[in-house]
Design goal:
Layout (H helix, E strand, L loop, with lengths): L1 H23 L2 E13 L5 E5 L4 E9 H8 L6 E4 L5 E6 L15 E6 L2 E17 L2 E5 L3 E3 L4 E3 L2 E7 H4 L5 E2 L3 E6 L3 E6 L7 E2 L3 E6 L1 E17 L5 E6 L2 E9 H5 L7 E5 H4 L6 E2 L2 E3 L4 E7 L3 E7 L1
Parallel strand pairs: 1-4, 7-12, 8-13, 17-20
Antiparallel strand pairs: 1-3, 2-7, 3-6, 5-7, 7-11, 9-17, 10-16, 11-15, 14-16, 17-19, 18-24, 19-23, 20-22, 21-24
């Protein structure tokens, strides 16, 4: 049985090869989308495309030739760059010789669009900070205990002045973190804007997530501010307790010296209650729950 199958299989394979050879020797038409790229653009200039940045090229040729082009990877349509600033209209039918991938053995049936409009501007380069575009929800009892850190934390961007003047930051792709109960790290893509070149298109990130607790810091001294030379502001008590909410490790590393409490003379002016609300400055990624006492008694007297 095997001896009978082998000749049959051989005939089938040879028939397929012959059919393919005959078929690919016929003329066909195929279409290719290709991004436009300027060649020989002076380094001090950058293009701003007023029309589309890609073209659709319909080619006619033998099947073998078209197959080689289509399977040859992504193609770019190169256009000779203007050498001066200002608006320019480029006839793409004059640019076929700059694209050797088209080849002399195929013909161009049409190119859409047949021309592109662009403006050549001065190139601007600057650093832009990375801006997070994260949506984070935490498991019950957990919360953010640090900055979201990016490596690198800024990106060098380069492009036309008219675009770069509006670029204040580079946003990350949107990532959703749900029910988070531990620190996170990884990589994220950056959202790229057409016409701008970037020193990198990805960055690393990390942020700390901790169990949230409430902790009281006792006997924080109250510092008096903005008292005139001829006045004296007396307060009672001179120390208060401050209650903070934050990450377990974050609060565990804090001391009362990390918390600042102030009584401002200007806050006492015009206050008929003779009670002053202290100003409290706390570390980042902590939350003020309250202070004991929440108000201070005070007296203003002449020196």
């Amino acid at each position: 049985m095997k001896n009978k199958l082998l000749p049959i299989i051989s005939v089938v394979i040879i028939s397929i090869v012959l059919w393919g050879s005959i078929a690919l020797s016929e003329d066909y038409i195929c279409g290719i989308n290709a991004p436009v790229e300027l060649s020989d653009l002076p380094q001090q200039y950058a293009p701003f495309f007023l029309s589309g940045e890609s073209v659709y090229v319909r080619l006619k040729g033998k099947g073998w030739e078209l197959a080689k082009i289509c399977m040859g990877g992504e193609h770019k349509f190169y256009v000779s760059s203007p050498q001066s600033k200002g608006r320019h209209t480029m006839n793409l039918k004059n640019e076929f010789e700059n694209n050797p991938w088209i080849g002399s053995s195929v013909s161009v049936v049409e190119i859409i669009p047949s021309e592109i409009k662009l403006r050549i501007e001065d190139r601007v380069t600057k650093k832009a900070p990375v801006e997070k575009n994260f949506k984070i929800s935490f498991a019950q009892g957990f919360g953010l205990a640090s900055e979201v850190e990016f490596i690198p934390d800024s990106v060098v961007v380069s492009g036309p002045e008219s675009i770069l003047k509006n670029v204040e930051s580079v946003k990350t792709d949107t990532i959703k973190f749900e029910n988070v109960n531990e620190s996170q790290e990884g990589e994220v893509d950056l959202l790229l804007v057409n016409g701008i070149e970037y020193s990198t298109d990805r960055c690393k990130f990390k942020f700390d997530v901790e169990k949230i607790i409430v902790l009281e810091f006792k006997d924080i001294p109250v510092k008096i501010l903005n008292t005139p030379p001829d006045k004296e502001l007396l307060i009672f008590p001179v120390k208060i307790n401050v209650i903070l909410r934050g990450g377990l490790n974050k609060l565990g590393r804090l001391s009362k010296e990390d918390i600042k409490v102030f009584a401002d003379y200007r806050d006492a002016l015009g206050d008929d209650e003779e009670m002053l609300v202290p100003r409290i400055i706390i570390p980042k990624y902590t939350e003020l729950v309250g202070a004991v006492p929440s108000k201070l008694k005070y007296i203003i007297r002449e020196r």
